[in-house]
Every structure is written in C-alpha cells, then in structure tokens.
Amino acid sequence: MRTDTNDSWLARALARTEPEDDTARRILDAALEQFTLLGVRRSSVDDVAKRAGVSRVTVYRRFQTKDRLVEETLLRELSRFFARLDAAVAGLPTMRERVVEGFVVALRHSRAHPLLGGMLRLEPDVVLPYLTVQGGSSLGATVEYLTGHLRRAQQVEGRPDEDPRPVAELMVRVAVSFLLNPNSCIEMEDEDQARAFARRYLVPLLDA
C-alpha cells in the first residue's frame, strides 16, 4: 500500500462522502466483504469484481490498482469510524465526558468492525504494522482527529493553550494497545469498567 502523510489521510477521511457512482459503491461494498472474509493478501481484484457483479476492467477503470482499491476501502471505513465517534460524543457538554465516551465507543466499534476485526484474525501480520511501527496512516490520522477535538476544547473551555498532540497520541496508543491485546486485569469488554478506566487514567491527561 502506498503511504501518505497523516494530514492527507485525515483530510481525505473527514472529507469523504459516498461515491455518487453506484458501481463504485458496489465495488467498495464488495471489497469490504471480500477483505473481511478472506483478508487482503488472499483476495484478488477478480474476486472483488465477481462479488460486485462487474468485470475486472470495470474495477480497474475506477480504482486503477489493487493497492488503490484497498486504500479507498480503508479510507471509507475510517470516515465512517470518525462519523460514529462524532455522533456518540456530540451531545456531551465537556471534553472530559467526550474523552470517556469516545474511548468506550472507539473500542466497541473497532472490535466489532468486520474489516478490522476480520483482518486481525486472518492477517495479523498485515494489520499490525499499520497499527504499530508503520502506523503513519490511519493511526496518525486518528491522532490528528483527536488533536483537533482537544484543541477546540481548549478554546471553548478556557484550557491552557498548549499543544494537545502528545496527549492525543498517548490516548490513541492506549486504546490501540487494548484493541490489540484485550487480556488485562481491567475488563474492557465491560463498558462500565472501560468508562471507569478512562475517567481515572485518561481524563487526568487533559490537565497534564
């Protein structure tokens, strides 16, 4: 997969809308289903085309390469992830409450997501680098997304005007660590315990 800057991924994900072209939407839906069932490595453009009910030429005409198709599928899912997070915290009055609920929703959605959950099971060696040592795309974009929320909270809530990026990165890395290895003395499958964890350990970072 080609690599873009974090800002590029974030901007593209946040600005993303569903393709107006019904065929492109059908191809992306098919790609999501195909990658979820068999993983990226074992899936070909022909497999996606067959699942979408189109020719491989039609797929290449719209997405040029398999890497581009994978990237566009991931970008659409990242956009949906951010939209779900925004909807979950939009009605909460303070950044402290949004951090707590955002942490819980992010864990819940990531674990239940068919593509991420499926790829972690089928191809962990493919997914793990993009969440760890090569996490300069979707992971970096998530840090930028949270940084923007924290910066706006600084202005609205009168917080000190300091760079919130380190706090955002630490919060994202904590969430990713629980996603990758849920075995812990803290039962993150229990949302009440997850909220208690976020209140005790993540919320104080806002004042660090």
Task: Tell me about this structure.
This is TetR/AcrR family transcriptional regulator. Residues 44-63 bind DNA. The protein is mainly alpha-helical and 208 residues long. Helices cover 72% and strands 0% of the residues. It has eleven helices and no strands. It has helices at 6-14, 22-38, 45-52, 56-63, 66-89, 95-112, 114-122, 124-131, 138-157, 165-180, 191-202. Helix 1 (6-14) packs across helix 9 (138-157), helix 2 (22-38) crosses helix 3 and helix 2 packs across helix 5. The model is unreliable at 1-6 (pLDDT under 50).
Distance between the termini: 37 Å
Secondary structure class reads: mainly alpha
Judging from the principal axes of the Cα atoms, what is the shape? elongated
Radius of gyration: 18 Å
User: Share of helix among residues?
Assistant: over 70%
Number of helices: 11
**What proportion of the residues form beta strands (DSSP E)?**
under 5%
Query: Overall pLDDT, averaged?
Result: 80
User: Regions with pLDDT < 50 over 5+ consecutive residues?
Assistant: 1-6
Pfam family, one: TetR_C_35
Domain HTH tetR-type: 21-81
Keywords: DNA-binding
Organism: Streptomyces althioticus subsp. attaecolombicae
